[in-house]
Amino acid sequence: RRTRSLALVLGVAPPLVLLAAWQLAASTHVIDARIFTPPSAILHTALQLLANGTLGSDVAITSARLGAGYAIGALFGVSVGIALGVLRPLRAALSPLFAALYAVPQIALLPLLLVIFGLGETPKVITVAAVTFFVVELNTLGAVRRVSPELLEAGEAYGARGWRRFRYVLLPAAAPGIFTGLRVAVALALVVVTATEFVAANSGLGYLVWNSWQLFEPADMYVGLVTIALLGVIATGIVVATERLALPWTRRRAR
Taking Cα atoms as reference points, which of 84, 86, 113 lies closest to residue 99? Predict the structure, then answer.
């Protein structure tokens, strides 16, 4: 309990010290407050944007795009990664293709998707799904391939064959690596959805940041950036909480 309290203090203290130093530097004109808007002004602007509904609407829109694309990409990424890890012929046929496609920045596909699907939500969701898919697929494949052969043999010795071996031996052993990919993918998905909103949207947090920069409204821009960071923390926290619920044995082992 004492260790957790210390970890909480150490996690919260640096941001608070940074914000206090930022506020002090802006108030004493050490930095230009017109560019580096002080935290107090950012908070005031955030409350204004919340009151008029702008910030809440942008958060909801970005969250919907992120959630839809991430869910689709994660589902296919885990499924394909497991299939490639288990089936050698499929892995030999598709792994080089996926490796080549992964090297292409998925955000570069956005112009092509805009030509095909227009300016609706589909190109943004597909772009998020693509980056999520490749990260999750590669991590899932690696996790399945790293499962110890001795562990599989031990499972077979206790009667775990076929589906039972997959369900009770292979999947639990690979699950921590799969969740590592899911944690990495959610951060990259947020980066990608924000980037798509920079150039192909008139709503969302990315649009808020980009439009504020164009109109030179630094306070609004900082509100968007801080909100994106908080959204990333929440999304990652959801994945971590899901991992702890799904894999309770890893939590006991960490203790």
Answer: 84
pLDDT digits (tens, 9 = 90+) for 61-83: 999 999 999 999 999 999 999 99
Neighbours of 221 (CB within 10 A): 21
The average pLDDT across 98-105 equals: 82
Q: What is the pLDDT of residues 202-224, one digit of tens each?
A: 889 999 999 998 888 899 999 99
What whole-number distance in Å separates Cα of residue 84 and Cα of residue 142?
10
CA proximity to 143, closest of 250, 13, 251 = 250
Please give the Cα distance from 249 to 243 (Å, whole number): 10
| Cβ–Cβ under 8 Å, residues 65 and 121 | yes
pTM above threshold 0.85: yes
| Tokens (6 digits) for 217 | 């409204």
Among 83, 239, 98, 235, smallest CA distance to 174 is for 83
Q: What number of other Cβ atoms are within 10 A of residue 30's Cβ?
A: 12
- In a 10 Å sphere around its CB, with 0-12 CB exposed, 13-18 middle and 19+ buried, how is residue 107 labelled? middle
